[in-house]
Specification:
Blueprint: H1 10-17, H2 22-27, H3 34-38, E1 46-50, E2 53-56, H4 57-71, H5 80-98, H6 101-107, H7 114-126, H8 138-144, H9 149-169, H10 178-195, H11 199-214, H12 221-232, E3 243-248, H13 254-262, E4 272-274, E5 277-287, E6 302-311, H14 321-347, E7 350-352, H15 382-390, H16 393-403
Antiparallel strand pairs: 1-2, 1-7, 3-6, 4-5, 5-6
């Protein structure tokens, strides 16, 4: 039976606010050597603690055993160690969330009634509605999880509580006028599009370049082509007079490919239109295909050519205002929720064994002071301001991870 990942529970939220991903969780613990695996480990060793609440190695092992009993037959032998570490990580994450974020929500007076729980579970099930094996009820959802049902249901209820707190403490307090911001973005796109040169200008320019080459004596065409490419081409190859080197069939877009391979050596093409714009192609050398012989591999037909590219303007698509509003609001809320949850975790007394250090919240970034004016009233040098800006980079990295 296919298993559905817990994508909307405290397990996932823990990974987010602790600044780790699945891969981090797996890679963080060091690989055990054979000697370490053989050595007896104290089941009473505290692996994670939040205040006076402890999660011991024995409790983690017991929960892992429950998961493997339920789902172990679906795990390939070569992935067993990997999956065990994943399960251990999720158990530790959920322990931290249960004893910090969920506790904070209760302290703030948030409660999950039957209607709240029903609304949350309906939203959760809707996320999987388009899947062939989509669960129809929350009980079916829990049964599809590798974790025991009581554990999954507890996590879902905690996440419903956390979501209610986030709505009350973060989302409802966001008074940003996203419609106004969206309008500015859309107006900016329209303004940039209006300033673009017309396709007719690009076509006019390529025709003028073609006319210059047509008027150039044959013996001077190579030098003239390189000169015009260096001065006018919109391709990086302009630094080499338009030289693209050798290429084989399929390496260039279809129209360019067909024109280059059909052109005799020493000849300049007519104007070639591609999705990039208008091209003039000058073939300088050709190599026939070579069949494999002895240890020498086969070589396909190839052409060496130069080109001049005059790009046609790329018009930006103007999005719908509702889509921009949705994106801006989602982006900001992810960042705000991440900061809010991290603030709760930083204030909690969380301790972990070395193998779970990656679950600790990142330290609070230092405050960035505004650049101070010098004695003449001038602002600090850009270099100093840049140094201060760098001190905020750890927080930016966290925000980026939260958006992902």
């Amino acid at each position: 039976m296919a298993k559905i990942k817990i994508a909307c529970t405290a397990l996932a939220a823990a990974a987010l606010v602790a600044g780790c991903s699945k891969n981090d969780a797996v890679d963080a613990p060091a690989e055990n050597t054979a000697a370490e695996s053989a050595a007896a480990k104290d089941p009473n060793e505290v692996m994670v603690s939040v205040g006076e609440k402890n999660l011991t190695r024995g409790e983690i092992d017991q929960r892992v055993a429950e998961v493997l009993k339920k789902d172990g037959d679906n795990i390939p032998a070569e992935q067993l160690d990997y999956q065990k570490r994943m399960i251990e990580s999720q158990i530790a994450q959920s322990f931290i969330m249960d004893n910090t974020i969920a506790v904070k929500a209760t302290e703030l007076g948030y409660k999950v009634g039957d209607d709240d729980f029903k609304a949350f579970t309906e939203k959760l099930l809707k996320q999987f509605a388009n899947r062939p094996d989509a669960p129809k009820t929350i009980d079916e959802f829990a049964d599809k999880m590798p974790f025991p049902k009581d554990f999954v249901m507890a996590q879902i209820r905690n996440q419903a509580l956390i979501d209610k707190m986030i709505e009350g403490e973060v989302s409802s307090k966001n008074k940003t006028d996203y419609a106004a911001e969206a309008k500015k973005i859309i107006d900016g796109i329209k303004e940039r599009n209006a300033k673009l040169p017309s396709p007719a200008d690009a076509e006019k320019k390529i025709k003028e370049l073609k006319a210059q080459l047509d008027a150039t004596p044959e013996e001077e065409k190579a030098a003239k082509f390189a000169e015009l490419a260096a001065a006018n081409s919109d391709c990086p190859s302009k630094a080499k007079g338009g030289d693209l080197g050798f290429f084989t069939h399929g390496q260039m877009v279809k129209e360019f490919d067909e024109a280059a391979f059909a052109l005799p050596v020493g000849k300049i093409s007519d104007i070639v239109k591609t999705t990039f714009g208008y091209h003039l192609i000058y073939v300088t050398e050709k190599k026939d295909a070579v069949e494999a012989k002895d240890d020498k591999p086969a070589e396909p037909e190839s052409v060496k050519a130069s080109h001049i590219l005059v790009k046609t303007p790329s018009v930006e698509q103007v999005p719908e205002e509702a889509d921009v509003v949705k994106f801006l609001k989602s982006r900001d809320e992810r960042s705000q929720v991440g900061e809010f949850l991290q603030g709760i975790l930083r204030k909690a007394n969380i301790k972990t064994a070395d193998e779970y250090k990656y679950l600790l919240p990142p330290p609070e970034p230092p405050k960035v002071e505004p650049p101070k004016a010098d004695e003449d009233g001038e602002a600090a040098e850009p270099e100093k301001a840049a140094d201060q800006e760098k001190s905020a980079e750890p927080q930016k990295a966290v925000e980026t991870a939260a958006e992902k």
